[in-house]
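tool_log.txt
---
The assistant was asked to compare two proteins side by side. It first ran the structure predictor on the initial sequence, then on the second. Raw inputs and outputs are pasted verbatim so the downstream comparison step can read them without reformatting.
(1)
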Amino acid sequence: MNGRLVLQTVRWQAVRLAAVVVAGVAWGALMPFVYTQFSDLIREMANSGQIPQELLNFGSGSLTSVSGTITLGLQHPIAIALVAIFAVGAASTAVAGERARGTLEVLLARPISRTRLYWSLLVGIGIATFVAFGAVLGGAIGGTIAFGLADQVELGRLPWVILNGFGLWAAFLTFSLAASITFDRPGPAIGISLAWLLIHYFLEILGSLWTDAAWTQQYSLLHHFNPGAILSGNGDPMDLVIVLVATVVPISYALYLFPQRDLAAPS
């Protein structure tokens, strides 16, 4: 790993990262506020049967509890989009973008191996991804405390939530970076990386809205990060194992492929 390249990679993301942090904190804090305003109404409508039970859930989250609201906030398309700017967008263009511009050969001409380049990009983009994810989670936890809801969750389990959440986004990050290494143009790399994320999102939402298809959630990585369940003391340790395996596989693929890839001249 090259420390200067890691730092430069983070600097390249600085402006976007600052904007995402502000938006992430605001979005995260909004969810506990929404809970305080509408949870009683939603529970009343649920008990009256006016709303089908399936429509009370969004993915693994729900506005019927504080823990469910935190999960809802982190699984919402807005939160996913904020973190995916780096885990998918930046990662999928990291190598393929350099390749398309014809600058990858110049970068590799310096005394840095492809393996060190890969680890430097992975760590640099990983830092940006972690900060973006931490902003959303921090806003949610901060809002929970500010609105007097902290007694309804076990904040002592927060380190587990952080580890499981970063493992989830590391899985998407490493997949996107592997795609960037595979293709010579950013278009295909972005397309397959975004499709991978959307497939997992579709499986998670489909299973929550359609009872007969609930089994599809087990095949979604998003389903294996449930901060509400963790903060309620019902987290499954296998969720962490699953996201870590999904992280290691693309890393192994990239470390095998990148050092031996022929880099044809750009056209």
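(2)
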Amino acid sequence: MAWIQLRIHTHRDNADLLGDLLMDQGSLSITYEDGQDEPIFEPKLGETPLWQDTVMIALFDAGTDLAPTIEFLESMPFLGKGFNHKIEQVEDKDWIREWMDSFHPIQFGSRLWICPSWREIPDPTAVNVILDPGLAFGTGTHPTTALCLEWLDSLDLSNQEVIDFGCGSGILAIAAIKLGAKKVTGVDIDYQAIDASKANAERNDVVDKLALYLPENQPANLQADVLVANILAGPLKELAPLIAEKVKIGGKLALSGLLQEQAQEVSDFYSQWFIMDPVSNKEDWSRLTGIRK
């Protein structure tokens, strides 16, 4: 089956209304894209911010006559006659296969591989984490996740206790276990992340070594030899005293989810509790590491 898509540039304030209008006109789906390469940083909890110049892509059956839809949209005051749009034909594809083909096994450091379940494991003798893109953030493809995985791979985690603060998909927690940690605790504010981490731990046969908690349920006086937190700059600063007290004296810390321009400020802040290392960067993102004083 073939498709036709209508691409429209609009202001973010009009995006919700325009999406509703397009669905009323028979659109089968709506996709949002950035129209001007405008970054969005650190949305507040529960918010789904859009770009100031948002491109909306409405997908229709190929047999749809879009002329009445265009005429109707031109009558909307926030668009007007001759509004910025483009109509394109879209070839039929096996979209599930297209999506699956875009994910490949990735190596981090010298020992660690993250492998989608449908791909052949490149090195059966390596430390392999089986993880599929899905419910929660963290498949290894983002630079911040990669920086944390590379750091974990560089450590000797034998007999170490680890905390994954903001565990998401559980990728860092599971990697730590497979790299030798005797026990890992994952904490996240989202119960869906807890569910995702548990499911991924079961898939990797490490569920017996992973304890998962919402913040309000975590054990009192929880501490570990190693703590990794791949979240955002704002929460990292707000939660710094809490994070610091969870690391044993002499323990190791890694923080990511930081843009390069945010890294030094956060590093300076954490130097109250940690001897901080030089910043490590990948693309536009940074990782901070340190030793608890």
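---
observation on (2): The radius of gyration is 23 Å. The chain has a mean pLDDT of 87.
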